[in-house]
Write a structure and sequence with these properties.
The complex is a heterodimer of chains A (273) and B (281). With 273 residues, chain A is α/β, with parallel strands linked by helices. Chain A contains 11 helices and 10 strands. In chain A, strand 9 and strand 10 (215-220) form a beta hairpin. Chain B has 281 residues and is α/β, with parallel strands linked by helices. Chain B has 2 domains: 3-230, Rossmann fold (3-Layer(aba) Sandwich), CATH 3.40.50; 246-281, no CATH class. Chain B has helices at residues 46-52, 81-87, 104-114, 119-132, 149-161, 179-194, 206-212, 230-235, 247-257, 270-280; strands at residues 3-12, 20-30, 35-39, 61-66, 69-71, 88-91, 167-171, 198-202, 215-220, 223-228. In chain B, the strands form 2 sheets. Chain B has a 6-stranded mixed β-sheet, with helices on both faces. In chain B, strand 7 (167-171), helix 6 (179-194) and strand 8 form a beta-alpha-beta unit. In chain B, helix 3 packs parallel to helix 5. Classes of the chains: A alpha/beta (273), B alpha/beta (281).
Chain lengths: 273, 281
């Protein structure tokens, strides 16, 4: 079943600078898709269009069978939770618990149910000991975990991460990515769209959509993309470590099967020593 | 200029219920002319530490010595602080949020004017700094707000470089940039270091520690958990400090385990490894 259908979508901030030049793609329910591309390629604009923060110039966005427009904006937004890059821009509450409760309050959730849900979300992101702390006492990574709890508490059908892990330390990042895969396991119909520069992260997603100067230039599995040196070169992409290592070893005469793991590359090296 | 830190402690919100000891009696020296990385998980005291380096935070106890400047817990004694800040400058996390002027050149010149430069001289120095960060004339008259994230960050860094500090401290200089933008910033940092500046980078990115740093300090709960070369750090037991060993280094350790003859102390990037393997072939 299709979760998101985007057709011929265009957007420009002003007449002379089109940001999205007519892009089309589908995302299935339960899929984990990475959207990648250089700064200025239109990734974040696309994200804002999907949640109706910006209004498209032309084309269409259909989410779970509903066309995104003024009338059903609210009902569509209730299905989507977004976590942005900078947690400071999305912290609204006076304390961690207030912040997580904010959307529940807007939805008239009864108090005891709300308290329970806030606690659950906070412990999922490892912030249960900070419920009464003010945001100014939290580090950037901690604030971002709260932002993710804000998203989780709404039990969304679609989770959009707009470079959400880029400010976290390695363990925080791993924790969040593990958390997302756990959420996907518990709820296989959760669709995750991750706008990311983290090439190792996108390597683990189901599909990579590559944007370049407002055009969708590629939509394929990570291994398909990283096996194609010409594409990598053409779009000046950074590759995951294992791919870089393989390329460079091939240049000095080693031969490998398609998509070898690090272990397999290592084996070749210690067998030939 | 080296930075010498003696028995430094820093406590936030002293004598309140929220009292937090961010730095707990540490002593260390940041070597001159090198790139030093300060790492540690969120809340370990990294950002607090660097803010004591130019007196933005006054130590609760202990001292920070830089040249003949000594920062103590007595603010009245820290008189020449403005002069010190010209020599020791900090580029904060997301410095592009601090841009405010109408044009790029004016923004870069702002700090200089505060140090008494005449408009004309300040603009001239601003242009030099913009050249250093790789932004040409076409940027001078543009609004900083219409630039890309990576370009904005370079403008912000130019504003600091224009002051010609001897010690440049950068808090998460590549956070939020795409790989290409990060590369430009890291190359810029190497270039500034080669020109003789002492560099301190606060980072979560272990690849920056391995590829770009000479020296690394690991903070943990306000104390120093490790001090030494990146290669020594990654070869030691790091399980307690939430440090992700770079993939490259992990792979080198695996090769070592299987008796592949490589010198892991000399491997900073993939090319170093490839070259060692090539020589062996």
């Amino acid at each position: 079943m299709k979760c998101i259908e985007v057709k011929d979508l265009t957007y420009s901030y002003d007449e002379n600078t089109p940001v999205l030049k007519g892009i089309s793609f589908d995302i299935d329910v339960g899929e984990y898709v990475s959207i990648v591309g250089h700064n200025g390629c239109g990734k974040s604009t696309l994200c804002k269009l999907l949640i109706g923060l910006l209004e498209k110039n032309s084309g269409s966005i259909v989410i779970k069978g509903q066309e995104l427009n003024q009338e059903n904006l609210t009902s569509i937004r209730n299905k989507i939770a977004t976590v942005f890059q900078n947690p400071d821009n999305q912290f609204i509450g006076a304390t961690v618990e207030d912040d997580i409760a904010f959307s529940l309050e807007n939805m008239n959730t009864p108090l005891n149910e709300m308290t329970q849900k806030v606690k659950e979300a906070a412990s999922k992101v490892g912030m249960i000991d900070y419920l009464t702390k003010e945001p100014s006492y939290l580090s950037g990574g901690q604030k971002q975990r709260v932002a993710i709890a804000d998203a989780l508490v709404r039990e969304p059908e679609i989770l959009i991460l707009d470079e959400a892990t880029s400010m976290l330390d390695p363990s925080g990042k791993k924790e969040i990515l593990d958390l997302i895969s756990q959420m996907r396991k518990e709820n296989p119909s959760l669709t995750v769209i991750s706008i990311t520069h983290d090439i190792e992260e996108s390597y683990n997603s189901d599909r990579i959509i590559l944007l370049d100067e407002g055009n969708l230039v590629l939509s394929c599995s990570p291994s398909e993309l990283f096996d194609n040196r010409e594409l990598i070169k053409k779009y000046n992409l950074t590759v995951p470590f294992v791919v870089e290592l393989k390329y460079k070893l091939e240049e000095i005469g080693y031969k490998f099967d398609q998509n070898p793991s690090l272990e397999e590359i290592g084996e070749k090296l210690w067998q030939s020593k | 200029m080296a930075i010498k830190i003696n028995n430094l402690s820093f406590v936030y919100m002293k004598k309140t219920p929220n009292e937090t000891k961010a730095i707990d009696d540490i002593s260390l020296e940041i070597p001159e002319g090198k790139v030093t990385a300060i790492i540690g998980h969120t809340g370990s005291g990294k950002s607090t530490l660097i803010q004591t380096f130019n007196g933005l935070l006054t130590p609760s106890s202990g001292t920070v010595e830089i040249d003949d400047f000594v920062i103590t817990n007595n603010p009245k004694k820290n008189k020449k602080i403005k002069e010190l800040r010209k020599k020791v400058s900090i580029v904060f996390q997301f410095p592009e949020y601090q841009l405010f002027e109408e044009t790029v050149e004016k923004d870069v010149a702002f700090g200089l004017k505060n140090y008494g430069y005449k408009e004309e001289d300040a603009i001239k120095e601003a242009h030099n700094a913009l050249t250093v960060v790789g932004l040409d004339e076409s940027f001078y008259k543009r609004s900083p707000f219409e630039l890309s994230g990576g370009e904005k960050r370079r403008v912000a860094i130019a504003g600091i470089i224009a002051l010609n500090p001897e010690i440049l401290i950068l808090d998460e200089p590549t956070a939020g940039l795409d790989p290409e933008g990060s590369k430009i910033i890291l190359n810029l940092i190497s270039k500034l270091n080669e020109e003789g500046k002492t560099i301190i980078i606060v980072t979560h990115d272990m690849n920056i520690v391995l590829n770009n740093s000479d020296h690394v300090i690991v903070m943990n709960n306000g104390k120093i958990a490790f001090e030494g070369t990146p290669n020594k750090l990654f070869a030691s037991d790091v399980s307690n400090y939430s440090i992700d060993i770079p993939r490259l280094f992990e792979f080198c350790l695996l090769l070592k385990e299987h008796n592949v003859n490589i010198d892991i102390d000399k491997i900073k990037n993939v090319d170093d490894l490839i070259n060692q393997l090539k020589e062996r072939k």
